[in-house]
């Protein structure tokens, strides 16, 4: 099957996006020319359009127990009724629930031109369910990061001074048996400490039961990730999320990694000072300076967008602290198999509220102060800062200074007085948007076949009508192709295509087997959790469904 996209601007952040040329989709891959002796099956003439690789969301909560708690707490009106409200512009219809079901998730992402999404907090005990949901999500390639760093057996081993090779073997087994493509750590040790009534755990504080500190946990896990050669570095949710003055512990966390590669998740929630009349201020410049100075760090922003959403986090310590701010007033907290926790808390971000206004400005500051878009990725930490359906609006905020200022002028007056946002006149170019939403996340995840328009890459592309309003442009692509097949056109959803579940390739994959075949380890697991470790392991066939295969990303080259 050969598709020709003619006279189209090509933009992937690497090539000159002003260039107009022909692009070919040949048997599911991109090509510059038609193979000799072949003929084109379909041609689309596209002057006035730009083609980008399919979008990649590096951090979006789309599968697992917490998203179902969200659906229970904020039950949705039917999707059809939401679309019915704006039948001529279905992309403007509000999401009646900030966390839609699997089908609607796939539909809304493909409708923006996104084709690959990663669930960033897959609890070991919840991985089977998270994968079941992602497998059920149409039009998207998916992957998950296994959540470690609060799991009792690991804490106990670190406290006992277990050798690194044992922990690395264990991490390898955790990745392999839960079909993960990376490792996430949330408030290292803090979720477990909360269960002993502790309300904070700073970088060098000791856990109330186990003789471990967050610093030690982060070091041990990042060493394991590096020894295994995982493409994506340790994906870190720092301590003290959302607290005034937390920039100190965020910078201390960066220092604790001692120059190893790291990714800071939803960084907007981790760069607050405690100055000003409300004791809450922006410290985005301090984090941006660190990111600008390092070639080992990437972040995703976790931008706040105004309106109703729900916050979902394994960080029960933080979520418990925030419980009185729930809007509407309902919450769920869970302990999960002594492995982590979960807090679900509806939230409404308001322009009239000082902290919410400032959070909005801080997220944008990070985008604008970090010079290289290969280091800063576009997320709202869906649904925490807002539903992912707000991405086209966020893109306009980045590309259009006047539009940004028109919203800024509606913020809480004290934010307008103190924020430096008006001085940041930078406007993202289309190439920079392509980098922050495509090639940047692809590189950070070791996905060499995505995020680019290079010949040989997957023919997952979105064609947008060039429009002076980026929100309108990115809300409604003219066409989206996956594996060279047209799956979306002008508001119509067409047939689904082949999809993959992306899992980690590891340097010494047998290390995973080494850990699980030890009788001693099997017994330790049984003693701790009450069942065999083989029961938790996900079989490959559980990841498959019609049209969904398993794909391995690359080992990090070092
Ligand atoms: Zn998150």
User: What are the segments in which pLDDT stays under 50 over at least 5 consecutive residues?
Assistant: 77-94
Radius of gyration: 23 Å
CATH class of the largest domain: Alpha Beta
**What is the domain tally?**
2
Number of helices: 20
Give the names of the bound compounds.
zinc ion
List the helices and strands and how they pair.
Elements: E1 2-10, E2 20-26, E3 29-31, E4 42-45, E5 49-53, E6 55-57, H1 65-73, H2 79-84, H3 102-110, E7 114-122, H4 127-135, E8 141-148, H5 152-159, H6 164-177, E9 182-186, H7 190-194, H8 214-227, E10 234-237, H9 247-256, E11 262-264, E12 272-273, E13 281-282, H10 284-293, E14 297-300, E15 307-313, H11 316-321, E16 332-336, E17 340-349, H12 354-369, E18 376-377, H13 391-399, H14 401-408, H15 413-418, H16 430-444, E19 461-465, H17 470-475, E20 479-482, E21 485-489, E22 492-493, E23 499-503, H18 510-517, H19 519-529, H20 533-536, E24 548-552
Parallel strand pairs: 1-4, 1-5, 6-7, 7-8, 8-9, 9-10, 10-11, 11-14, 14-18, 23-24
Antiparallel strand pairs: 1-2, 2-3, 5-19, 12-13, 15-17, 16-17, 19-20, 20-21, 21-22
Helix pairs in contact: 6-8, 6-18, 10-12
Zinc ion (ZN) binds at residues 59, 61, 120-121, 265-266, 381, 384.
């Amino acid at each position: 099957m050969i598709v020709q996209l003619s006279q189209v601007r090509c933009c992937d952040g690497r090539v000159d996006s002003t260039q107009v040329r022909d692009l070919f989709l040949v048997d599911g891959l991109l090509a510059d020319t038609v193979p000799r002796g072949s003929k084109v099956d379909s041609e689309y003439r596209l002057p006035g359009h730009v083609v980008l690789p399919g979008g990649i969301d590096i951090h979006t909560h789309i599968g697992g127990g917490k998203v179902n708690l969200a659906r229970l707490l904020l039950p949705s009106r039917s999707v059809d009724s939401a679309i019915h409200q704006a039948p001529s512009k279905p992309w403007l219809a509000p999401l009646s629930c900030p966390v839609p079901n699997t089908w609607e998730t796939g539909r809304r992402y493909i409708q923006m031109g996104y084709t690959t999404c990663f669930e960033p907090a897959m609890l070991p005990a919840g991985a089977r369910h998270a994968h079941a949901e992602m497998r059920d999500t149409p039009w998207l390639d998916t992957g998950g990061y296994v959540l470690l760093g609060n799991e009792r057996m690991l804490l106990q081993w670190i406290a006992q001074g277990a050798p690194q090779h044992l922990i690395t073997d264990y991490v390898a087994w955790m990745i392999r048996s839960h079909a993960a493509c990376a490792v996430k750590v949330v408030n290292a040790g803090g979720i477990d400490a909360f269960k002993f009534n502790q309300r904070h755990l700073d970088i060098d504080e000791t856990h109330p039961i186990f003789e471990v500190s967050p610093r030690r946990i982060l070091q041990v896990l990042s060493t394991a990730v590096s020894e295994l050669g995982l493409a994506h570095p340790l994906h870190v949710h720092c301590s003290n999320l959302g607290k005034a003055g937390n920039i100190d512990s965020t910078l201390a966390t960066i220092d604790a990694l001692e120059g190893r590669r790291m990714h800071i998740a939803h960084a907007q929630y981790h760069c607050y000072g405690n100055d000003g009349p409300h004791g809450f201020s922006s410290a985005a410049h301090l984090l941006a300076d660190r990111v600008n100075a390092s070639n080992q760090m990437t972040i995703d922003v976790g931008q706040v967008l105004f309106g109703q959403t729900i916050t979902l986090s394994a960080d029960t310590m933080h979520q418990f602290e925030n419980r009185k701010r729930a809007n509407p007033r309902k919450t769920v907290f869970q302990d999960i198999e002594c492995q982590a926790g979960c807090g679900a808390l509806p939230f409404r971000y308001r322009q009239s509220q000082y902290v919410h206004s400032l959070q909005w400005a801080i997220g944008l500051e990070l985008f604008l102060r970090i010079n290289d878009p290969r280091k800063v990725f576009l997320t709202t930490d869906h649904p925490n800062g807002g539903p992912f359906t707000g991405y086209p609006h966020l893109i306009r905020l980045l590309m259009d200074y006047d539009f940004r200022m028109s919203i800024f002028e509606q913020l809480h007056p004290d934010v307008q007085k103190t924020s430096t946002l008006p001085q940041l006149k930078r406007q993202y170019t289309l190439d920079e948007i392509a980098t922050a939403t495509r090639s940047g996340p692809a590189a950070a995840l070791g996905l060499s076949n995505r995020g680019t328009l290079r010949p040989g890459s997957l023919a997952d592309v979105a064609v947008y009508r060039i429009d002076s309003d980026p929100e309108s442009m990115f809300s409604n692509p003219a066409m989206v192709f996956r594996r060279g097949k047209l799956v979306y056109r002008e508001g119509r959803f067409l047939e689904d295509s082949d999809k993959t579940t992306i899992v980690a390739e590891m340097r010494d994959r047998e290390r995973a087997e080494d850990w699980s075949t030890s009788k001693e380890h099997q017994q330790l697991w049984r003693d701790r959790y009450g069942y065999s470790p083989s029961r938790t392991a996900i079989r490959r066939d559980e990841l498959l469904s019609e049209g969904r295969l398993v794909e391995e990303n690359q080992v990090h080259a070092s």
